[in-house]
Design brief:
With 860 residues, this protein is α+β, with helices and mostly antiparallel strands. The protein is 53% helix and 12% strand. It is built from 37 helices and 15 strands. The strands form three sheets. An eight-stranded antiparallel β-sheet has the order 8-9-11-10-14-15-13-12. A four-stranded mixed β-sheet has the order 3-2-1-4, with helices on both faces. A three-stranded mixed β-sheet has the order 5-6-7. Strand 5 and strand 6 form a beta hairpin. Helix 22 crosses helix 27, helix 23 packs antiparallel against helix 24 and helix 33 crosses helix 34. It is globular.
Amino acid sequence: MTPRQTGIVLKEELDKARGAIHADHDAGLGGMETARRLCQAVDEIIFKLYEAQAEGFTGALVALGGYGRGALNPNSDVDLLFLMKEPAHVKENHPPKEMLGMLWDLGLKVGHASRTIREAMTIGKEDNISRTAMMDSRFLIGSKELYEQFYNKYRWDIVRRRAGAFVQDKITELNARRHSFGGVIRLTEPNVKNSPGGLRDLQAAMWMIRAREKVETLEDLASVGLINQEDVALINDAYSFLMRLRNSLHFISGGPFDKLAHELQPRIAAAEGFEGMQNQRSAELMRRYYHAGQVIRDFSDELISLAAGYGGFGKALGFKSPKTDRLGLFADAGRLRGKSFPPADLDEKPDILFHLLCRVAKEDLYPSRKVFRGLVKIKEQAPPGWFQGPLAGKLLIDILRLENSERALRVILRAGILELMIPEFTEITDLSQFDRYHRYSVDEHILHTIKNVEEIPLGRHISGDLMGLYRHLPDLHIVKLALLLHDLGKRAEDHHAEEEAQFVGPILERLGLTYLYDDVYFLVNQHLAMSRTAQRLNINDPATIRLFCDTVQTRENLKKLYILTHGDIAGVGPEIWNEWKDKLLLDLYEAASRYMLEGDTVFLSGPEQVEALARETARLESGVSVEETLEFLSHAPERYIHTATPESIAAHMELERRSGIKKLVLSFSANQGDLTGEFTVAFPERVGALSVLSGVFASKDLNIAEMIVHTFSNGLALDTIVAQGTLTAFSDPQVVANFERELNEAMMGHRSVSEMLKRRSRYIKEGGPNQHGMEPRISVLNNLSESDTVIEVWARDRIGLLYDITTALASRIINIESAKVVTRGTQAVNIFYVTGAGGGKLEGEETERNLAEWIRQALA
């Protein structure tokens, strides 16, 4: 046959084999068995191609990486090493190029290298990725003698002789990978290969242990006593399940897609035999994933600890007898280990458990697998009073008083002890979330909220006020207890199927903690109050502060709620907390605190306040007189004077001077260490200006998070816009000048905003409002502000959404006084404070109904 005919025949053969394997996968074939059969199918093709086209090649063809381990996922790379006796420039030794071309033509993603043994040794020393890929090598065809020379020399010269450095390099690499892929097992959309507890964890652990001992498989580890024989099946089952999930992801996506995305979870869950409504079966799939991931991570971490130096290798690692505490516990390589734990006889009080948890928290340790089994034994054999009644309540409060209580709580949660103390935790343990906003499971989110509170002293994007409150709040354990209970009502099918606050009374009564009821009930019941007010409402409106303070009641409640809200928001997911959110909460805290002390007087802006602002502005800024400042402020709306500072007034006066109330001018400042920036825009007031601004911002891929509008009596409009997106370029004054020019052209009608948006590839309306099941939800509220109507629009987030809404409002001559945009995953919540054409609220049932309908039509 010609090469082309051979290719056609082999492709038909490979497609037929893969099709049969895919069908068997759909019928329930195990993950590892599917991967082995896919590997065997590729082996057969390579053998035939090699025999047909490798004439004269005297080396060996070797499989590397996952292919070398004998397990291929459907769209994994096929990595090959042409191992040569002589360098590639020796003509008769050159690898067969035609073979590689045909493999690509067959639809295989082939990675390849041609090396002599000496070259392989050099690469193995210099490159970490190549080093581990060649550790997982498997002889395919050719000179087996040459391959065995390579294998033995590589194992001794590269891996075993540099074992210590190799292990440390791999630990550093593993920690970086885990951090970049979410940091924890219980993610709502984990990467089954790279997230903590994923396939790569076990592979990395095996690389490290193989650098220390002559072992290849789990069975080898058990045979030399490094793991228990009964663990082998448990680990193999967990790994095979993750491999099955990865196979499903590859088959469904048609590519090397490893993220267990929300959209794919219901389909995969149904294939795994889980039943119920969409979120319910997805929740059960994720529970099984979390269990498998925990098995993989625990075992991997134990192996890594051994490889890093603990005495599983006896004299080879210089193991010395450790110094133990009174319970036989000792710390080693981040692990709390024990020779014999727990004691045979357990006391009536849980002192030994608290002792262990204190060590875990204070020394930042995690129990070894052996000690963890001891904790499970305690759960099963401890006197009932340990986990019920006043003893359990005291134990819980003692834990929460620890500075690193999150670590201790994590241990008793994973051991099943927390569920004995608070049975309501059973429903939310390992429960994923499906709102496309939270990145963690419910229980992981709760632990992160407490961890974030305890990390306030570290000060990352945290105001000095919040750090000061943390240091001086005497009953921080109450805040942490409220966080522990604040999401107990979540369920798979509904975001909050039951109100969390209803659990507080029964739980505290069972634990003998009723004296904490008022504080804990308030915090749980109102745990979203500060977040919603700060992120959605205009805190410069007196009605907002009055309503918020009526809810909070006391300054002590305010302090606790401030700390709790920080923990809750930051606990949504990695990198959620930023300087902008910190400022939103701080501004609300300061405004509410002042109102609680001074009452309505804080809203007054008499002549004395204006005079004082003018004098201070003139003092700080050379070239600005008191008279000029008073003239500027005489045209300012009252809410501007409430919030203005001398520095901002001077900057705004300069913008007014540049504008002459004839053209648009702007300034930009980046929020250091944050992903937001602040644009201040001055221009002649005109109907629909905000629609133009939001459209041009959207066309530049800048998402508006907050917009404060001030309209002066002399016709000046002064808008402050907090935006997110690609802002680094705006550090260049020329970029700012170009953006200012484009805004002017759009304002004057020389540029079509809709055309600018159409050119944005991300401004796509395909799928309409039903995409992700998100119909627009519009509320018109006249009870949140004394002077404005508040409109809330919940819709699927997309570029141009704000433009469409503001255009609809402008077409009805509706003035926007301020706006905020909160993004929650794929949802956007747009909040507008508006007035009618003549000022004042838009009141009346028919007016409110029409207003909602106009916006709905604009989004259709």
